[in-house]
Amino acid sequence: MEIYKEIPKLKNKTCVSIGKFDGVHLGHETLLEELVLSAELRENESVVFTFTPDPEDFFSGKELLHLNTRGEIISQMDEIGVDILVNAPFDKAFADMEPKDFVKNILVNRLKAACIVCGSDVSFGKGGKGDAKLLKDLSKELGFEVEIVEKVTYKDEPISSSRIKEALESGNMEDASEMLGYDYYHYGPIVKGQGLGHRFNIPTVNINPVKGRIIPKHGVYFTVVEVDEKEEYHAVTNVGVRPTVSDENSVNIESHLIDCPMDTDFYGKRMRVYFLKYSRTEKKFESTSHLFKQIENDITEAKAFFAKA
Question: Which of 102, 266, 272, 276 could be cross-linked to 187 through a Cys-Cys bond (beta carbons 3.0 to 4.6 Å apart)?
């Protein structure tokens, strides 16, 4: 997949999709697959047009948390078969561009759009005034086709990044997984913890949250942990600031691997934590003894959960 950080002037006819593409979920996947199929049928190149920074980040004046990193989104587009990704720089001039000028000068003249594939809720141009109806009207004038892809729904409502964020932030992992098409995860190198778990025969492995990614609601989860993309373990995972044992207030993802030998050394490896079910809220206990007694109960509940799964 070719990636442009500025808007290129392409030579061949293309099929283009426009959007924020701020996450990887079933709605985006469906749209991208339709784009690639349409391009193949027309023997055109498939182009995704999006922005950096995300318009939401630009208008808020800060970097917001998203479902996925830019790198993860690019990998998904490449895997689906998108030919060209245009990551156009988003600034005030772009935000003030009239919808018709955007379609004519950029999509048609520069990207050679013979077909525009978009969601039914597409929004573009100054004030977000551009929509699917405008695209259809302009298609006759400017000589391109329009394919409208209906929104994928879950529980009778359209799947969106905002719905998934709400599910993650409320600990509703079941709904989040259904809308994403996979179990939400965080990943990274295993970092050294305080070693308290070993004193209670409940050793844990730790990672820091991925920068820029939504962190699920603080609390205890039943998870699956994948180490170096090879070994998989059932686990109990705490997401939060560990108030019983730390005053640092930094968020940590700490997992006890249920079916793992006690003396296994994971340092220097990477792991991915898949969140399956929220179990309970994070709380401060009177002592570490009380905390690890509760973790023993969490492990018992987790074993019952995985036995039914």
Answer: 272
Count how many Cα atoms sit within 13 Å of the Cα of residue 169 in the half-sphere of its side chain: 11
Nearby residues of 43 by Cβ (< 8 Å), 6 or more positions away: none
In sequence order, the β-bridge partners of residue 280 are 220
Q: How far apart are CA 148 and CA 16, in angstroms?
A: 12
Both 189 and 66 in one domain: the answer is no
DSSP state, 281?
E
d(CA 236, CA 277): 10
For the chain, the domain total comes to: 2
Q: How far apart are CA 246 and CA 309, in angstroms?
A: 34
3-class secondary-structure state, position 219: strand
Whether 304 and 201 map to the same domain: the answer is yes
Tell me the pTM: 0.90
**Which residue's entry shows tokens 């809220």?**
281
List, for residues 18-67, the tens digit of each pLDDT value.
988 888 899 999 999 999 999 999 999 999 999 888 888 888 877 788 99
Q: 189: cis peptide before it, omega within 30°?
A: no
Which tokens is 168 given? 């993650």
